[in-house]
Amino acid sequence: MTKQRTEVVNTIETEKIEIDRLLEDIYQHHGYDFRSYARASIERRIRLFIASKNCVSISEIMPKLLSDREFFAEFISYFSVLVTELFRDSFVYRLVREQVVPLLKTWPHIKIWHAGCATGEEVYSLAIILKEEGIYDRTTIYATDISEEAIDKANEGIYEMAALREATLRYQRAGGNASFSDYYHARYNAAAMDAALKERIVFSTHNLATDSVFGEMHLIFCRNVLIYFNPELQNRALGLFTDSLVHGGFLCLGTKEDISFSKVNTRFEVVDEKAKVYRKQDRI
């Protein structure tokens, strides 16, 4: 092995040790457990954060991560899944409108958990569907994310005007039956979601790696989050969702996720394989 190659191997090994130590210290000091996140995803997000601070190593950011809560909150924001948009995968929302909502209507009060909601675009998308189908006034949506910064942005509900314009076609493909502009108020290059959409949403932080269940949910949305977890953490999250759903409740995952090889796969029936919508049947 050449000297140069040996140095590269040593650098990689040193970084691995530093990341392991960082994740353990974060868990011990702050209670956030990222040790079971997919390794490639963890490494990429840590490198991005280090670069954003004009640092070159983990050792440079470690002391501040453990002592400065604002600095740590900024770090956490890199672990929230921020790739989102209004009515993302419009066919999923159309299926929810046509096949899930009719059954939700049979419950007197509907509770929905939107886990890993990021900056809230998909939460408002779901709220619009429920409003148009006449059940929003008896629904509570619990929208959670690991990042306080993401939750604050979701609660504000202010997005770039260009993003709202692009969402119009997706709204229509999702079966939208009104003017999409009715749901936001534009000013200059930004738009705020209508206040009426926020009335039934409770935004809060929640960590799928360490926190407990949300009980008695009728529908759980967790789209494009599990792909960043390793199999162990995926099973933990799916176990939380299963225990949080009522009998006959629905689970909606991302289009690249499924429960086929999970520990809870026998507890659900498939509603739609493409949209990754499942219904809890309690066959244990």
User: What name does CATH use for the topology of the largest domain?
Assistant: Rossmann fold
Mean pLDDT across all amino acids:
90
| Helix content bin | 40-55%
- Unreliable sequence segments: none
**Shape designation:** globular
What class, by secondary structure content? alpha/beta
CATH class placement of the largest domain: Alpha Beta
The assembly state of the depicted protein chains is single chain
Q: Give the DSSP E fraction (strand runs of 2 or more residues).
A: 15-25%
Write the layout of secondary structure elements.
Elements (H helix, E strand, L loop, with lengths): L2 H28 L8 H14 L5 H10 L1 H9 L12 H15 L5 E6 L5 H12 L6 E7 L2 H9 L1 E3 H13 L10 E4 L2 E4 L1 H4 L2 E5 L11 E6 L8 H14 E9 L14 E5 L4 E4 L4
Parallel strand pairs: 1-2, 1-7, 2-6, 7-8
Antiparallel strand pairs: 3-5, 4-5, 8-10, 9-10
Helix pairs in contact: 1-3, 3-4, 5-6
Give a written overview of the molecule.
The chain has 284 residues and is of the alpha/beta class. The protein folds into two domains: 1-78; 90-280, Rossmann fold. It is 45% helix and 19% strand. It contains ten helices and ten strands. It has helices at residues 3-30, 39-52, 58-67, 69-77, 90-104, 121-132, 148-156, 161-173, 195-198, 231-244; strands at residues 110-115, 139-145, 158-160, 184-187, 190-193, 201-205, 217-222, 245-253, 268-272, 277-280. The strands form two sheets. It has a seven-stranded mixed sheet. α10 links the parallel β7 and β8. The radius of gyration is 20 Å and the shape is globular. The mean pLDDT is 90.
